[in-house]
Amino acid sequence: MAPSPSPAPHVLLINPWIHDFAAYDVWAKPMGLLMLGAILRLHGIQVSYIDCLDRFHAKARATDPFLRNGRGPYLKTPLENPKGLEDIDRRFSRYGIRPDWLTQDLKNIAPPDLILVTSLMTYWYPGTIETIQILKKVFPRIPVILGGIYPTLFPDHAQKTCGADRVVSGPGTQGLLKWIQEYTGYRIEPAFDPEDLNTFPYPAFDLQTRVSYVPLLTSLGCPFSCAYCASPILNPKHLRRNPEAVVKEILHWHGEYGVKDFVFYDDALLVNPERHIFPMLKGVLDAGIQVRFHTPNAVHAKEVTREMALLMKASGFHTLRLGVETGDFSNRSKDLDQKLTLKEFKSAVQSLQSAGFSKSQVGAYLLTGLPEESEKEVALSIDMVKNQGLTPVLAYYTPLPGTGLWEKAKAASRYDLEADPIFTNNAIFPCSKEPFSWQRISRLKARVRG
Ligand code: B12
After folding, report:
1. In order of start, what are the domains of the chain with their CATH numbers?
2. Which of 23, 47, 155, 362, CA to CA, is 20 to 30 A from 327?
3. Which residue has the CA at smallest separation from atom 78 of ligand 1?
């Protein structure tokens, strides 16, 4: 197939608003969308980007992008609670730029030929719908494609409600160039292989107003299959990048954009360390750069040996989160996960402590809000983590279709989880028959602090 002789089209990428009870930029960027943007640029396509969550928008109050290692609050506008959640005693809001700023920004750019919208959480879909409504008002004739986590996990709901011209489930990398041809007539020879991450360009983080930190994806997928996690549905194949290529990417963002904070988005960063993370971190050390690494998406504690901990400390790991989930190791089974034993956990803790990591740097995620959970179990897990000298970090469970816990979650819920993804919001403790209560959260938080 010969490349198209017609001029390259203009594609607009949109990261939509969040509608939720709480949201904060804890190193959250639309990696998938900016990956697609970079692939389009690689093929000569003109790409624009509007981020409804832009904390550094020209009309927003100026803030230092490098404060708090790049993290920070979104602008927030109160909204009515969504239908079905009127009884939740929490403030629901739109997070992100003001709607009139978005409309103005859309009017200021050259009209696009195609618009790609992402979505990062199932229960954020009302923000996605509101964004698409504005896109359709400003560009009524331009096709809009929606992809990402929400249409992948709730395809029928997204198809019915989102207002996009096309709804895509699963990775966008496979069909991207085909859709460009279908909607714009522009034919392209692929210059990358969707099955080989080493052929991908760096995600287009440079399209942001400010690059305050950079997320890194060194692998896709996970060899474990935990009952609460959708990773095997979202990324069934475990694909890895060459460690040297990751080091080059770190040097690129550090050298060209002064980035100091790097955030791993991998589901299984530490597995197979000799061939993956060890050479990567040794490469960072050889380069002699001073950077900080963060793993807000938990790493597998069983992989944390003495050698691993020393290398992590030396190369600049700053915020570490371990996926512990529960302190009740005797009851750990296929119903939850089989990724960690008590012995492995203790050994990881010892390695991290002797490598010099402080208590505040190492958090152990503990799931709360699981179906059939008792408060006592969570309280004991908190105590277990504290006894080991780590910081317990509560991770509120979100039920997801297709995962091992989905049937139990539906049975335990006071909502019809299948009918509306709004009910999968972890902030409302959806897998309990009891109404939402601040007291329960406060008691657990007090136990974490006390
Ligand atoms: C990295 C990560 C994070 C990061 C932030 C990520 C972000 N962008 O906001 C951190 C660690 C901060 C995080 C936090 C949380 N996360 Co998280 N996270 C992930 C993780 C591991 C990877 C996401 C990712 O970037 N993948 C890589 C990119 C390349 O993939 P992608 O964005 O999906 O894009 C691809 C496709 O979706 C598609 N695509 C995307 N956009 C578009 C657009 C178009 C037009 C098209 C055609 C295609 C397309 O193509 C892309 C390339 O193939 C996923 C699990 C997973 N394996 O996906 C969980 C996941 C998304 N997180 C989840 C959860 C529960 C959370 C938390 C609520 C955890 C908690 N209990 O506190 C918090 C919420 C924080 C927040 N965002 O405010 C859930 C989702 C829950 C839900 N209801 O939707 C997931 C699925 C994990 C799980 N439990 O199974 N998370």
Report:
1. 10-184 (3.40.50.280), 214-449 (3.20.20.70)
2. 23
3. 23
**Cα–Cα separations (whole angstroms), residue 134 to 88, 139, 140, 237:** 28, 8, 9, 36
Q: Is 157 in the pocket of ligand 1 (CB under 6 A)?
A: no
- Answer whether 235 contacts ligand 1 (Cβ < 6 A): yes
pLDDT at 334 (0 to 100): 66
Q: Strand runs (DSSP E) across 9-75, as ranges?
A: 10-15, 18-20, 46-51
Buried b (16+ CB within 10 A) or exposed e, 164-179: bebbbbbbbbebbbeb
Find the DSSP H helices in 235-392: 243-257, 277-287, 306-315, 342-355, 375-387
Ligand 1, pocket-test mutation among 265, 295, 325, most atoms within 8 A of CB = 265
CA of residue 112 to ligand 1 center, whole Å: 26
Closest CA to 162 of 145, 187, 176: 145
CA–centroid distance, 6 to ligand 1, in Å, is 36
- By alpha-carbon position, which residue is closest to atom 2 of ligand 1? 265
pLDDT one-digit tens code per residue, 332-353: 766 788 889 999 999 999 999 9
Q: In the numeric block, which tokens belong to residue 113?
A: 């030929």
Question: Would you say how long the chain is, in residues?
Answer: 450
Q: What's residue 217's pLDDT? A: 98
CA 32–ligand 1 middle distance (angstroms) = 9
One-letter amino acid of 377: E
In this predicted model, what pLDDT tens digit does every residue of 174-209 receive, in sequence order? Answer: 999 999 999 999 999 999 999 999 999 999 999 999
SS3 state at 306:
helix
d(CA 337, CA 332): 7
Running DSSP on this structure, what letter comes out for residue 65?
T
Q: What is the arithmetic mean of pLDDT over 88-94? A: 95
Is the per-residue pLDDT at 246 higher than 80?
Answer: yes
**What is the bridge-based pairing of β-strands 261-264 and 292-299?**
parallel
Q: Residues 126, 129, 131, 133: is their CA dihedral positive or negative? A: negative
Nearest ligand 1 atom, CA 23: 78
- 8: CA distance to ligand 1 center in Å? 30
Spell out the residues 6+ positions from residue 180 whose beta carbon is closer than 8 angstroms to its own.
9, 11, 40, 43, 45, 114, 186, 188
Q: Is the CB of 323 under 6 A from ligand 1?
A: no
